[in-house]
Design a protein that fits this description.
Structural class: alpha/beta
Helix content: 40-55%
Strand content: 5-15%
Order of helices and strands: HEHEHHEHEHEHEHEHEHHEHHHEH
Number of domains: 2
CATH class of the largest domain: Alpha Beta
Distance between the termini: 46 Å
Bound molecules: pyridoxal-5'-phosphate
Number of strands: 10
Shape: globular
Strand order of the largest sheet: 1-2-10-7-8-9
Oligomer: single chain
Length: 314
């Protein structure tokens, strides 16, 4: 399998220009005061599907041959890749089946079905959903949510926008599940902002990507986080290979720190973030001394908080 390169991201931006406007990146004085840093929030929660993943889905579908589009695809996801693929398949007239774990949020299931995808609920977690998706691979094209070059190229376009808006960043903090977003951030930073440190974050309750990066090869780990976008039990090969060279640091935060960051987003930046969307801010809040006085982009990767997460903000 080939690794993605910066030119893939540039090509994805051309493809996406007719589908998605650039998302805003705002700063908020109250948030700067709370963190002690100059924080820039990249608002991927403002995407039509509420998360950055839609950049990848549209890029993937755009590159698919008419016969593969006709055949349709199957993939697996806790919810935002699901919506991305469903949305993109609807745009390109391709049948879409998404296997989601039985624990998936009803809001994400409803949204995915809303775009016309068939949703199959199977397995307790991503590993179980993957198994069920693989069983359908004879019928449909199986799309890995993590090891697919086009998905990484597409999500990388967010980082072109980040660095064009702020070429002077000291750090960008990126939440990780499979690692497509962080890998793409590394590719783009290396090409256009080499002095900006890319910092990845995962929940300490699901540290597979973090531990894979530290080990230098993909490992499996318990997958117990309640933060569904970060909930993977294994490292993914392709993003890990890119992260190995490009990533400056990989941090872990607790689910409680992520919940606290969701509250700070709501109270200091009038932003509704789902857990994964608040993980980058959680890193800055957890270690203010490390970021004091620095220019830091935190990527609010998604806003698809469930009803119970929203109730928890109070
Ligand atoms: C909101 C959100 N943030 C971050 C991630 C992690 O992205 P990746 O799987 O590219 O590491 C996901 C994954 O689904 C997500 O939904």
């Amino acid at each position: 399998m080939r690794l993605p390169v910066f030119d893939d991201v540039l090509a994805a931006r051309d493809l996406l220009s007719s589908h998605l406007p650039a998302t805003p990146m705002w700063s908020y004085p109250a948030l700067d005061e709370a963190t002690g840093a100059s924080v820039f929030v990249k608002h991927e929660n403002a995407q039509p599907t509420g998360a950055f993943k839609v950049r990848g889905g549209l890029t993937f579908l755009a590159g698919l041959s008419p016969s593969l589009r006709e055949r349709g695809l199957v993939t697996y996801s806790t919810g935002n890749h699901a919506q991305s693929m469903a949305y993109a398949c609807a745009r390109y007239g391709a049948p879409c089946t998404v296997v989601m774990p039985e624990s998936a949020s009803e809001e994400k299931i409803r949204a995915t079905r809303g775009y016309g995808a068939r949703v199959v609920l199977s397995g307790a977690d991503m590993a179980g959903a993957q198994k069920a998706a693989e069983a359908l691979a004879g019928e449909f094209l199986l799309v890995s949510p993590g090891d697919t070059v086009e998905l990484m190229a597409g999500v990388g376009t967010a980082y072109l926008e980040v660095f064009e808006a702020r070429p002077d960043l000291d750090a960008v903090v990126v939440p990780v599940g499979s690692g497509t977003g962080a890998a793409a951030a590394c590719l783009v930073a290396a090409a256009v902002a080499p002095r900006c440190r890319v910092i990845a974050v995962q929940s300490a309750s699901s540290p597979a990507a973090h531990d894979s990066w530290r080990a230098g090869n993909t490992v499996e780990r318990p997958n117990r986080t309640a933060v569904e976008g970060l909930a993977t039990g294994r490292g993914f090969t392709v993003p890990q290979q890119v992260l190995r060279d490009g990533l400056a640091e990989f941090r872990l935060v607790s689910d409680e720190q992520i919940r606290a960051a969701q509250r700070v987003f709501a109270t200091h930046a009038h932003t509704l973030a789902e857990g994964a969307g608040a993980a980058a801010l959680a890193v800055v809040l957890a270690a203010p001394d490390d970021f004091a006085g620095l220019r830091v982009a935190v990527v609010c990767t998604g806003g698809n908080a469930s009803g119970s997460e929203i109730a928890d903000l109070a």
